[in-house]
UniProtKB/TrEMBL annotation:
This protein's UniProt keywords: Ligase
Domain AMP-dependent synthetase/ligase, chain residue ranges per copy: 22-361
Species of provenance: Streptomyces qinzhouensis
A Pfam family that the UniProt record links to this protein: AMP-binding_C_3
One GO BP: fatty acid metabolic process
Protein name in UniProt: Long-chain fatty acid--CoA ligase
GO MF: medium-chain fatty acid-CoA ligase activity
Length: 536
């Protein structure tokens, strides 16, 4: 792919020195800012080190298991420059041990975690390289602390020119993993062609360029987060990399023009803005816009959301605050499929189909996607039969989502086919609209609806605060039921002991509820008719 986006990335950053854009790394208290030209120079040093010190060659795979930071970006770019694959592992979901290296065929694992399962394991910030044997090979995977990457990148000079790394459209650049809402995450090899196609399609509708600063904070193990670093190198805009924990503190400092986030993040932002409005006592439009600037800064061009359903109330609230927010749709297995944008936006939809994608609605109402440049046609790592369920003949990915296309090609998603509840009277209930209605109250952060015994609908509610405002939840339950059809009404709401979170295992890294785990945690209450807040 010498003429594609990856070919342009590995050949150098945009021309123009500092005018070619910057990358910033923002923590809670400080921001480190580098010209993209300097980032590219440092990635060359790391690329030489990977090749000369660790023997990494085109087609070899390195693993990265670490929090967001400069070293993550440098390793990823360095691998691209020498034609090596990466595998991004989310901290907390994976452990740096011999099984990881063995299962995923790693030559080197870079981590900021303690090396689990290795003799005399110590925190990696203080450790040297630890050799981890790989089964059935004559080589050994080496676990290397990220601090070594820091030291290499700090050296002066550039080293000799690297041989060009040609990326064929069907070459796998990275192994990415599902968010893992159920079971072990599936591993999927993402092709260079799919990366190239997505970057070009997004640029056609949003026109990112000098003056823009794209703010990303979800884990870099998620390939789409790395897209925005690639976009900066291609189109000369700025990009800021942070973490979820530091995001709100960094936003006010960085003042980005674009924020990429999941709905749960923007719901939190909405609550912060509402708190500011309550404290000020003001209710006019100017006060709302001021609250938005206090949270996001004063340069927002638009907000980007996806990966999970966004509530209409949140989308309208932020747009009314002068923060236009555009919802989109895609899966790991498809990349970005549809996107609302300034030139084409329809409320309630997830946008029009992007160039290079085709959406097909099956006879059962399930959305299928065909791509000019597929992510892949099978999982690299999954349970037997999983690939066949997702990847269908004719290059179609069966998403499992129910939806329809309107006359103008806007896609509307109604819920998961697996989340259709069949009651004992034969009526079918799609739970997503019910859950969205229950979430539309400040007292409710998240909820999941279950159907014990096929006789009643029971919601497990994640409270927005602790202690939960049970009175507000009860009032909202009554109001919601009054607007729902008889078969859709919630009989009880079980209030979770603590809010769903990544830490307690009830949310994925993209802040989607883990339905099976939530049911396991609250099974007794869901099945006990005496538990919960009862609808009147």
């Amino acid at each position: 792919m010498t003429e594609g986006t990856l070919g342009r990335i590995v050949s150098g950053p945009p021309d123009g020195g500092d005018r070619g854009g910057h990358i910033a790394f923002a923590s809670l208290t400080r921001t480190e800012r580098l010209p993209l030209t300097e980032l590219y120079r440092r990635s060359g040093l790391v690329a030489h080190w990977l090749r000369d010190r660790h023997g990494i060659r085109p087609g070899d795979r390195i693993g990265i298991l670490a929090a967001n930071g400069p070293e993550w970006v440098l390793l990823d770019l360095a691998a691209l420059r020498i034609g090596a694959e990466t595998a991004g592992f989310e901290p907390g979901k994976f452990s740096p041990d011999s099984r990881l290296a063995d299962r995923y065929g790693l030559r080197v694992l870079f981590t900021d975690r303690p090396a689990a399962g290795t003799p005399g394991a110590v925190p990696m910030a203080a450790a040297g390289a630890v050799t981890v044997p790989m089964a059935e090979t004559e080589t050994e995977a080496v676990t290397v602390p990220m601090t070594e990457v820091t030291a290499v990148a700090a050296q002066p000079g550039e080293g000799p020119p690297l041989p060009p790394a040609g990326w064929d459209p069907k070459s796998v650049t990275t192994v990415k993993f599902t968010s893992g809402s159920t079971g072990e995450p599936k591993g999927l090899g993402a092709t260079a062609g799919s990366v190239d196609s997505s970057l070009r399609a997004v640029q056609q509708i949003f026109h990112h360029g000098p003056g823009d600063d794209l703010f990303v904070f979800l884990p870099l193990s998620l390939l789409q987060q790395r897209y925005w670093v690639y976009s900066a190198l291609l189109y000369g805009h700025d990009v800021t990399v942070s973490t979820y924990e530091a995001a709100f503190a960094a936003l006010r400092r960085v003042r980005p023009t674009v924020v990429m986030g999941v709905p749960a993040f923007f719901e939190t932002a909405k609550r912060q803005m509402e708190n500011r409005l309550r404290r000020s006592g003001a209710t006019d439009g100017q006060a709302l816009r001021d609250a938005g600037r206090a949270v996001f800064g004063d340069r927002i061009r638009y907000l980007w959301t996806g990966s999970a359903p966004a509530s209409p109330g949140m989308l309208r609230f932020l747009t009314d605050a002068g923060l236009p927010i555009y919802e989109g749709y895609g899966l790991n297995e498809t990349c970005i499929v549809t996107k609302n944008h300034p030139g084409a936006h329809r409320e309630g939809s997830v946008g029009q189909v992007l160039p290079g994608k085709e959406v097909l609605i099956g006879p059962d109402g399930v959305v299928g996607v065909r791509s000019d440049h597929p992510v892949n046609d099978h999982y690299a790592y999954a349970a037997p039969g999983d690939s066949e369920k997702m990847f269908r003949p004719g290059g179609i990915v069966r998403t499992g989502d129910l939806g329809h296309l309107d006359e103008d090609g806007f896609l509307f998603i109604h819920g998961r086919a697996d989340d259709v509840i069949v009651l004992d009277n034969g009526k079918k209930v799609v739970v997503r609209p019910v859950e969205e209605a229950l979430r539309a109250d400040p007292a409710v952060a998240e909820c999941v609806v279950f159907c014990p015994g096929q006789t009643e609908l029971v919601a497990v509610v994640s409270p927005a605060a602790v202690p939960a405002d049970r009175t507000a939840i009860s009032v909202h339950l009554e109001r919601t039921n009054a607007r729902l059809a008889a078969d859709e009404r919630i009989s009880r709401a079980v209030v979770a002991d603590e809010p769903f979170s990544i830490g307690n295992g009830l949310l994925t890294s993209q802040y989607k509820p883990r339905r099976a785990r939530i049911l396991d945690a609250y099974r007794a209450a869901v099945h006990d008719p005496s538990e919960g807040i009862h609808a009147r």
